[in-house]
Amino acid sequence: MSFSKLSAVVFGALFIILLYSIIVYALKIMNKDVKSGGRRKPSTGKKSFGLEVVEVTEDTNLKIGTVIPIRTSVTLGRKEENSVVLVDQHVSGNHARLIIRNNILFIEDLNSTNGTYVNDKRIAGKVKLFGKDDIKIGSTSFKVL
Question: What are the residue boundaries of the FHA domain, all occurrences included (predicted)?
Fold first, then answer.
């Protein structure tokens, strides 16, 4: 066998191996797509959280059904520098803070006078929140989304 025939056989074998590798890789991707039903995972890997206003007082600036998105941190209280200003005599100036750490939502009571309630229980310090948890601050109620 001459050198040119040997190189043609080696090149042909390498080409067939490469072709089969591409086909197997494409079949794996298609199989994974079929198993997941075509759904894609979010590219950022971050969960999105929000608060839905469920109950308010008459003189508040919030409306029932309003959704407040939570990106990193949201503060709630009577003072104007808060992210969400609650016009309520039962709400402290800096009442509570919602924070996201490692894709987990927490609420922290900021030593408020009348307290922060999660699912009708008064909290102290940081508490982990879950979807559909109820939060009550003064006479305003929220639902975690």
Answer: 74-123
Q: Let me know whether 56 and 110 are in one domain.
A: yes
Strands 96-101 and 104-109: antiparallel
Instruction: Report if residue 137 sits inside a domain.
Output: yes
Per-residue pLDDT of the chain (145 residues; tens, 9 = 90+): 677 888 888 999 999 999 999 999 999 988 888 877 756 665 556 678 999 999 987 667 788 999 999 998 999 999 999 999 998 889 999 999 999 999 999 999 999 999 999 999 999 989 999 999 999 999 999 999 9
The domain in which residue 32 lies consists of: 1-37
Q: Considering the domain boundaries, does residue 44 fall inside one?
A: no
Q: Per the structure, how many domains does the chain have?
A: 2
